[in-house]
Amino acid sequence: MVSVTDTPNKETPNNETQQPSGTAMRAQTAAKKLGIYLPATPEEFQANAVTHAQLRDLQENPPEWLANLRREGPHPRPVVAQKLGISVTALKKNEMDRPLTTAEIKELLSAMPEWLEAARKAHAEERSNELSQEESGERGKA
Fold first, then answer.
1. Which helix (H) or strand (E) is 51 found in, with range?
2. How confident is the model at residue 11 (pLDDT cuts 50, 70, 90)?
3. Three-state DSSP class for 79?
4. pTM, full prediction
5. Burial of 137 (0-12, 13-18, 19+ CB in 10 A)
6. Which pLDDT tens digit goes with each residue over 12-41?
């Protein structure tokens, strides 16, 4: 059995699943905070709530399954978009709105289809405009 943190959960007996509470979050929320694709996680992670302490432990000392998932994927849309240097909207527009592995992302980057090149250029321009606006806004405050 794979443990969420590879350490026993002192708060929950072995035969029970932990439910979300004021101090715990759903697995979906934890996966989002960890930047991982929930369906690719171990069943135990998906079935249990994750406390804030467990989340910190996962971030600071990732177990092998988490390190492997972050390294090889499949990755959720926001991570795919970030690795490709484009927006999630661009993924959707180009029918790439699905989890991709690191190998698939590298393959796309090396092939650099037209849609990806255009989306990267548009995303870079958007980011540049946002940074310019932030800088001019801060100068106005000084």
1. strand 50-51
2. very low
3. helix
4. 0.75
5. exposed
6. 444 455 555 568 999 999 999 999 999 999
